[in-house]
């Protein structure tokens, strides 16, 4: 098949899949509705260090986690799924919309949290050093 036909077919197919997923609502960001959802998300990622408590933020896109080993972590929405990271070595800075968490992890070097001012003030000292 000539490239002049193959290229538009591939681009059109990928665009069609993206549009279909969006129209079906499968591109919405996941909401961490409650503490149990946050604990389950953490335990899926780090089952060997069980989460014992979670504090979700007002928009449901992140949760602070306390673990059985005494560590702190964060679970956050990444598209239609969640991911989790330990907060050891994290630095935090205020942004107009909440906080920016800088992690010593190349897979998720920055996490931007949308938090209300009161919430940001409460989360900032828990997350890490001020950058």
Write the SSE topology.
Elements: H1 3-23, H2 35-45, E1 51-56, E2 62-67, E3 72-78, E4 81-86, E5 91-95, E6 98-102, E7 110-114, H3 117-127, E8 129-130
Parallel strand pairs: 5-8
Antiparallel strand pairs: 1-2, 2-3, 3-4, 5-6, 6-7
Structure description:
There is one protein chain. The chain is an alpha+beta fold and 131 residues long. The protein has helices at residues 3-23, 35-45, 117-127, and strands spanning 51-56, 62-67, 72-78, 81-86, 91-95, 98-102, 110-114, 129-130. The strands form two sheets. The protein has a four-stranded antiparallel beta sheet, with helices on both faces. Strand 3 and strand 4 form a beta hairpin. The protein is elongated. The chain starts with a helix and ends with a strand. The model has no long low-confidence stretch (mean pLDDT 91).
């Amino acid at each position: 098949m000539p490239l002049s036909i193959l290229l538009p077919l591939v681009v059109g197919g990928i665009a069609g899949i993206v549009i279909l997923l969006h129209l079906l609502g499968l591109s919405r960001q996941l909401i961490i509705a409650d503490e149990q959802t946050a604990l389950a998300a953490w335990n899926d990622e780090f089952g060997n260090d069980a989460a014992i408590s979670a504090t979700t933020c007002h928009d449901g896109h992140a949760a602070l986690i306390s673990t059985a080993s005494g560590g702190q972590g964060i679970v956050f929405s990444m598209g239609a799924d969640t991911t989790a990271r330990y907060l050891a070595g994290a630095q935090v800075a205020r942004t107009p919309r909440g906080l920016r968490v800088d992690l010593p992890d190349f897979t998720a070097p920055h996490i931007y949290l949308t938090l209300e001012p009161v919430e940001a003030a409460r989360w900032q000292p828990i997350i890490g050093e001020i950058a």
